Each structure stands twice: as structure tokens, then as C-alpha cells.
Amino acid sequence: MQENQEESYTGLPSFAPIPLSVSSPAIRPEDRKLIKAQAVESMHLKAQQQIELLKKQAALIMEQAKELEDRVAISLQIYEATMRFSPTMGMTYHLYKRNDGEVILSLVSPAEWGQSFPFKLFIATVKLLADHTWEILQRGEVEAQETKAEQAE
User: Fold this and answer.
1) Burial 98-136, CB ≥16 within 10 A → b, else e
2) In a domain, 23, yes or no
3) Which domain holds residue 133?
4) Distance separating alpha carbons of residues 96 and 105, to the nearest angstrom
5) Distance between CA atoms of 56 and 30, rounded to whole angstroms?
6) 96 lies in some domain
């Protein structure tokens, strides 16, 4: 007799573990494989999104590192160049290379020279920053022209 009492449910019908009437909603067992498959698919999708975001961030960091390397390289080139003035922070200057290989920092832009351009190459237009590196505002055709000159020799 005790066994029958344990098997019957006497609580509220809405909390019953089994349907109590024909009109009760159907209770179906959960498909655990489907639940796992959906969870794994969601996990892979989220992980792929995060990986793509990290790749974009890494590309941006590499681009910033390249820009910094370029600034340091041009800064070294400028500080080894001939200067007939003391550069001021925030001012724009122009870097040229003469036919004899001497590098010169000038206040005169390439457009201001007109037809009497006295240099072999225009290297860059730069601005002195507060950390004493130089921001490259415009690049000249250094690599292309130097490569052509080397091939001609």
C-alpha cells in the first residue's frame, strides 16, 4: 500500500512531472545530441568571431608598429642630414637628397622650387613631433627612383 502512495502525485497540476489529463501539454524527452550540437555550433561561431576581431586588432598593431619604425628610420635619416637651421616642433620641413648623396633638410617644399629643382630626390615632407621623432606627411619617390638609378648603372 505504501508503494502506491509514493507513485501518485498530490501537488499542483502545473508542477506535475507527468501529464495529469488529456489536455495537458505533451512532455517529450529532450534530444541531448541536438542540444550539444547546437551548443558546439554556437561556441564555434562565437570563437570564430573573436578570432577575426583579434586578427583585425593584430593587423592594426602591426600597421602602427610599421609606422613607428618608419618614423624612427626617417628621424635617424633627418638627424644625420645637413641642417642649416634649428627645427621647431610642429613645423613642416622637406627632406631631399643631392646628386652627391648628401641628405638635406629644407624649409622649401618641392612645389616651391619650380623648374630649378636642385636635388636628385625628394625624400619626404615631415613634421617634428614633441618626442623628437618626425611624422611623415608625404613620401617622395625615393625607392622607385633609387632603384631605377641603380639599374641604369
Assistant:
1) eeeeebbbbeeeeeeeeeeeebbbbbbbbebeeeebbbb
2) no
3) 32-152
4) 6
5) 40
6) yes
Residues 6 or more apart whose CB falls under 8 angstroms from that of 91 comprise 127, 128
> How many Å apart are CA 105 and CA 141, to the nearest integer?
16
Tell me if 117 sits within 8 A of 96, measured CB to CB.
no
C-alpha cell at 133: 621623432
Domain count, the chain: 1
Please, are residues 134 and 71 in contact by the beta-carbon 8 Å criterion? yes
Q: Is 132 within a domain? A: yes
Cell of 144: 622607385
pLDDT in tens, 132-152: 888 889 988 644 444 344 445
Burial of 85: CB neighbours in 10 Å, binned 0-12, 13-18, 19+: exposed
Q: Is residue 25 part of a domain?
A: no
User: How far is 11 from 18, CA to CA, in rounded Å?
Assistant: 12
> What confidence tens digit (pLDDT) does each residue in 25-51 have?
777 777 888 889 999 999 999 999 999
pLDDT tens, 85-105? 899 999 999 999 988 989 999
- What cell was used for 107? 624649409
